[in-house]
């Protein structure tokens, strides 16, 4: 499918579209441990990667899976893993290692209810804050949320591009509904897909300083085995990559991690607007709930309720400016989520103009329906 040289129209489920997006972005290494509702990603990767001279490994657990994709990326190969709920929890320590070593990689979490093994095949959005803050330490990370099969393909390509450009792990949050929904997808011709590759050093090996700051805050990245010497450690390190306790070097390192993401806000923070031009009430949604919210907003318009929809494609760094504009425009905002209100807290945090914020939550393993959202809109 991704080998096409012309557009191709196919029927895919969300998990399958993530695979095709990853391959189109240049992913050639996948390590994972099967877990519902993410298993189809591993299954299809095991078939598709060998066809493209890539490598698929089924690991013994999710801890090893995360370690394997970090190792592959350090060796110069674009890599990805996919999991759900408890598997995502197991990945957190190595995810932190990828953050501090600035190792590009993509992690797909097809969310299911928790805690622990929780609800094995039911939809949930309970891992939003874990995606942002699951690892210890104070560091930035990029989190995207998919709501359709189209999103699964497009945002997986974007996830790889952002990961390579900023040398940061990127997390894709999906859920059981998007994962197993089948929709028509027009896969673009391979030569029309914008693919970003990491920047390699162009200095002689003896001049190479692996974590040297520059105007972008993103040092060039040498691959293991290509002649450049660099030290990889989970300890905070100096520009040469060796552990440091020097306060100035510690602060400079951590500030650079934040700065490189902050300067990229314009392309990292992605939102979509539907019927927002004259909206008085905004529905702020992400993931599969966006699908219900869209239908509810259309129904509300049919009954002369001026409602609109903002889809948060990027959850973190939270798109404060885009949400702030909406909250200034509207007298009220509704935030439906399949958790107790993880993103609604972020919306309230940036609400400095007194917009009335209303929550709508389900935590019973069932989706939020369009009628439930419409009923809330009628009362606002």
What does this structure look like?
There is one protein chain. The model has no long low-confidence stretch (mean pLDDT 95). The longest helix has 18 residues, at 149-166. The chain starts with 7 loop residues before the first strand and ends with a helix. The strands form 3 sheets. A 7-stranded mixed sheet has the order 3-2-4-5-7-6-12, sandwiched between helices. Strands 9-11-10-13-14 form a 5-stranded mixed sheet, sandwiched between helices. The protein is globular and about 70 Å long. The chain has helices at residues 14-24, 39-51, 62-74, 85-90, 92-100, 128-133, 149-166, 176-180, 247-262, 265-268, 289-302, 320-329, 342-349, 370-378, and strands at 8-13, 29-32, 55-58, 79-83, 105-111, 142-145, 169-175, 182-187, 271-274, 281-285, 307-312, 314-316, 332-337, 356-361. The protein contains 14 helices and 14 strands. By secondary structure, it is α/β, with parallel strands linked by helices.
Essential attributes:
380 residues, alpha/beta, seven-stranded mixed beta sheet, five-stranded mixed beta sheet, 14 strands
Q: How large is the radius of gyration? A: 21 Å
Largest sheet, described in full?
7 strands, mixed
Number of helices: 14
SSE order, as H and E?
A: EHEHEHEHHEHEHEHEHHEEHEEHEHEH
What is the β-strand count?
14
